[in-house]
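Case study B.
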Amino acid sequence: MAKASSVKDVAARAGVSLGTVSNVLNRPERVSPDTRARVEQAMRDLGFVRNESARQLRAGRSRTLAYVLLDARNPFFTDVAEGAERAAEGAGLSLFMCHSDNRAARERDYLAHLVEQRVQGILVTPVDPDAAALAEVRRNGTPVVIVDRTRSDDEFCSVAVDDVLGGRLAVEHLIDTGHTRVAFIGGPDSIGQVRDRLEGARRAWSDAGLPEDQLTIVPTASLTVVEGRSAGERVMGISKRRRPTAAFCANDLLALGLLQQLSTSGASVPGDLAIVGYDDIEYASAAAVPLTSVRQPRQELGRRAAELVLDEAEDPDHVHQQVTFTPELIARRSTLG
Amino acid sequence: MAKASSVKDVAARAGVSLGTVSNVLNRPERVSPDTRARVEQAMRDLGFVRNESARQLRAGRSRTLAYVLLDARNPFFTDVAEGAERAAEGAGLSLFMCHSDNRAARERDYLAHLVEQRVQGILVTPVDPDAAALAEVRRNGTPVVIVDRTRSDDEFCSVAVDDVLGGRLAVEHLIDTGHTRVAFIGGPDSIGQVRDRLEGARRAWSDAGLPEDQLTIVPTASLTVVEGRSAGERVMGISKRRRPTAAFCANDLLALGLLQQLSTSGASVPGDLAIVGYDDIEYASAAAVPLTSVRQPRQELGRRAAELVLDEAEDPDHVHQQVTFTPELIARRSTLG
DNA sequence: TTGTATGCGTTATCAA
DNA sequence: TTGATAACGCATACAA
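Model:
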């Protein structure tokens, strides 16, 4: 690659001083029309492009945000990114997505790189929300907002969705549609969201006065399609008399796996088993039996996170806040028949 | 945010010169152990972080690659990104993903920003592979590799998959499994890939000596689940005698929509209609009836693209090359029963 | 082994 | 209206 040309080169070619070129770029009104034209022509001739590193060094601030996300294959995170992207766009910034792929080491590398780049702010859905690494990023001068996770202290802004409420909505819907034996499918419960959704399910259950032992917990090792299939086998293996008539899955991938297992084995949904998922990913409505699911305001999450990180970056009186959004149940054929 | 500290601050605190601090960072062996310790302590005290902008300005090169992708919700692109990410990681670089969301304006903004950032190279799946904007990026000094698209000239490196072959594999498989009336579902044919896959289908068809009018073209407005459903209605609306017994869909989303429409209306897959998709996204194997699909070496695509862009960045004798990968048919129950 | 000086490309201040 | 100059933070060549 040929070395890029600088303001100095442009100045030389246009026969003006370097300061004038800078003025053309930053305060064109102060430059006489014909010198301006000459400078602009020189820029075109040379293919001049501002060097953002130099601008940034000079300005002390960059024009980018970053979102470090856990799983680029999960549409939930890309929708969050989309919301953040729009907010960034509105503020004249670019958003870069960094895929940690659930690996702490890669997350660490990205965070370090972003801090060195002096990005204006970092949104992150961390592998471990309580990791010291996050506090260090902040200490090193870069604003951080935690997305879709919460930290045990209040040292960070965060945006999340009320998962306890989401679990409650799911199970209330099943109760409303007449079910009195329900399975909760999900795990591991090291994941806070899994715990919260189960908690919500339990509360709805006891609030309805239903016997505790009719809410069956079916644990899974992860929130994936494969685990959903295996959970399906376990549920359908229960004797007809005691078998749940509905299942609430901790996310849609589990629900899709469950659905697949049922249709493979000839069971009907919702006839033999009604299903509620969680996340309302695009494939939920596109499933063979469209899936009832709990929708989170994903773009909204991203948008708000971006706003918070910019506030932290710009407002000296910034106060950390934990924002909680309300989920919504989308009822479809997997529970309505 | 408190202003970040610089080498100068560290030097002052450690009571050494600025050059010594720099040596600690870049050639620690040249610094005596105890001054080094003192400097490192000062760094910790101050929370010192290298300023990448300044390094980059000084070095003239950055330590990042970027992948500008069309659709972050499509697992195909995120898998490509994953491959590129690994290659970048191996070269000590970071990969930023930029989501153009199929919008030319946003793509333009990202490209401009990346050029100004002087990233080492850009991988891009462009909205329009022949757009002048790409040539301008190159002219402005940033290496560019086109991913999963091809350009009509040879001015760029590109990596793609042989879609004509992919179409051929899909239809040969259907012919092998006994079908003599087949539908091709896909569109719009402004998309090169759609054209190529159809072309491959046609060649397989005529090579097998089957009558042209038994390969029905069912056009769609886009490659989405919704369009797949609507195509399903059209196909099943054909009188039983003349109806195709199998469908080859230009991508998996269409195939999933088709599958959904069929199972909704009580038709059996593959009994009433066998289905082949394209891309082998994760949800293809997770569908109610696991989907036969044409798999592209996605991570490989990304890996190779990253290698090419680095070669273009580093090798003065770089020659552009167009790399074509070979797709593979993954047979599952949607054609095998 | 450590310190000093210079320049990377840009912007802004001040003088002409 | 234009030009000269300093500064941002870092890395390096060179001097001490």
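Chain B touches chain A through 66 residues (CB under 8 Å). The remaining cases will be described in the next quarterly update.
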